[in-house]
């Protein structure tokens, strides 16, 4: 059916139809009424404009998993195939929608999260500067957006950014990957050394450390020292060991660090006794006691066994025969095979006695009771009638009379004990004097 439109009054007759045209209101969400008079009948036609649509089409973000911790990522930058640049569509034509951005980060640091836009409809060829989107940013259909967000610095945790365009909000989630343990692969395992000389520096072989994902601390125990080098260059020392060139071997207490691909060597000063083993546990990064390095001295003849002590007896009765405890518990070690040495009892005799007149001859005798006698004389009197002397020498002429104890007394020591001070003249009895002598 063909209609003829015009602005002048028209007439209708029985069986005809009417169609009207009227311009809609110039504002969104507005109603205009049109009154139509047909003969004696009046009717009203309502025209309403649609509300302005500030909700663009959905622009969902693809979550990013297994991200490297503490790294800035840009959505849709072309490095991940599943991501596209955000392009706004679905707004009411001609409408501008506000843009805002919030994140799980505190604050608005653009180095943590930010957005930038490209106003394609205005002819922009490139994206603008990164901003926090807290300022007044508006976009229309066809404008494009980049979002960037830094991943969490802790593995297994997430960071989020919520981008709002008009009435629609979409969230981008980044989950940081759990970092594998920082452990060398394979873990360095040094060859054990046996038959080493006593009291010298011995060196392990030089091994390259691989498999680390970050710098790692190196630790050992029992006095081993640590050498680390970027190169495996070495020199041969006087004992024939290959030693890392130009390296200062550090104590474990300094927590030396090693990078992946660097070289490692240990050095240890061997024990001063033969047939003695020192085991050093090696830890690198997250691996605690990942391996051990053993160094054993050889069976060299020695007259010095490993040290031990007897338990002191603080409350012995006078003249009582006292038995010590049995030492060492595990037996004598450190002498080497086929070596025997004498056992000498070190006896300390203490006696307080009245010193006889100066010049009296008294020999020192050691008897089972432990009594000590001594000859004393003034060595510096100017005359026999001197009122004093400045030095008193106690001559100890030792004579072992007998000793039924199980200790084997070594050759007696002849010694002198010098006591200085002002002493009375000859003929005067001296005060009691404390004499101690070790045999």
Structural commentary:
There is one protein chain. With 439 residues, the protein is mainly beta. It has strands at residues 31-38, 41-48, 64-67, 72-75, 86-87, 97-103, 113-118, 137-139, 144-150, 158-165, 168-176, 193-196, 201-203, 207-208, 216-219, 225-229, 234-236, 242-244, 250-251, 257-258, 263-269, 277-284, 287-297, 348-353, 364-366, 375-378, 388-396, 398-400, 415-424, 433-438. It folds into four domains: 1-51, no CATH class; 64-176, Immunoglobulin-like; 193-297, Jelly Rolls, CATH 2.60.120; 348-438, no CATH class.
Give the class from helix and strand content and strand pairing: mainly beta
Whole-number average pLDDT? 77
Q: Report the sheet-strand fraction.
A: 35-45%
Give the fraction of residues assigned to helices.
under 10%
Distance between the termini: 143 Å
| Top CATH class of the largest domain | Mainly Beta
User: What oligomeric state best describes the polypeptide chains here?
Assistant: single chain
Total number of β-strand segments?
30
Number of folding domains?
Answer: 4
- CATH fold group of the largest domain: Immunoglobulin-like
Model regions low in confidence, pLDDT < 50 over at least 5 residues: 346-439
């Amino acid at each position: 059916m063909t209609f003829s439109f015009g602005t002048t009054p028209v007439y209708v007759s029985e069986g005809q139809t009417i169609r009207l045209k009227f311009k809609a209101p110039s504002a969104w969400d507005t109603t205009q009424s049109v009154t139509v008079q047909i003969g004696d009948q009046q009717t009203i036609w309502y025209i309403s404009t649609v509300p302005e649509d500030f909700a663009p089409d959905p622009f969902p973000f693809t979550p990013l998993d297994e991200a490297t911790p503490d790294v800035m990522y840009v959505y849709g930058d072309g490095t991940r195939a599943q991501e596209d640049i955000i392009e706004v569509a679905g707004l009411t034509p001609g409408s501008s929608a506000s843009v805002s951005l919030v994140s799980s980060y505190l604050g608005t640091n653009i180095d943590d999260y930010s957005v930038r836009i490209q106003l394609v409809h205005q002819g922009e060829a490139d994206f603008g500067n990164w901003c926090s989107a807290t300022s007044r940013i508006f976009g229309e259909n066809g404008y494009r957006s980049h979002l960037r967000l830094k991943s969490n610095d802790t593995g297994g945790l997430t960071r989020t950014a919520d981008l709002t365009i008009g009435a629609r909000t979409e969230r981008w989630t980044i989950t940081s990957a759990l970092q594998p343990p920082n452990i060398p692969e394979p873990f360095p395992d040094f060859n054990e050394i046996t038959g080493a000389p006593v009291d010298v520096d011995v060196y392990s072989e030089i091994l390259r450390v691989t498999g680390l994902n970050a710098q790692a601390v190196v630790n050992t125990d029992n006095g081993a020292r640590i050498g680390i080098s970027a190169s495996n260059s070495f020199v041969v020392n006087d004992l024939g060991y290959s030693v890392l060139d130009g390296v200062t071997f550090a104590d474990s207490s300094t927590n030396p660090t090693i990078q992946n691909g660097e070289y490692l060597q240990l050095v240890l000063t061997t024990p001063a006794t033969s047939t003695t083993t020192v085991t050093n546990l090696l830890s690198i990064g997250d691996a605690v006691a990942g391996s051990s390095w053993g160094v054993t001295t050889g069976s060299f003849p020695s007259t010095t066994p490993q040290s031990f002590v007897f338990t002191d007896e603080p409350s012995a009765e006078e003249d009582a025969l006292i038995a010590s405890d049995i030492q060492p518990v595990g037996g004598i070690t450190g002498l080497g095979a086929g070596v025997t040495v004498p056992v000498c009892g070190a006896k300390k005799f203490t006696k307080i006695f009245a010193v006889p007149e100066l010049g009296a001859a008294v020999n020192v005798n050691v008897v089972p009771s432990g009594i000590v006698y001594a000859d004393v004389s003034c060595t510096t009197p100017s005359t026999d009638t001197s009122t004093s002397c400045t030095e008193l020498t106690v001559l100890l002429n030792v004579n072992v009379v007998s000793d039924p104890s199980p200790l084997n007394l070594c050759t007696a020591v002849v010694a002198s004990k010098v006591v200085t001070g002002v002493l009375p003249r000859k003929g005067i009895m001296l005060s009691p004097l404390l004499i101690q002598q070790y045999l």
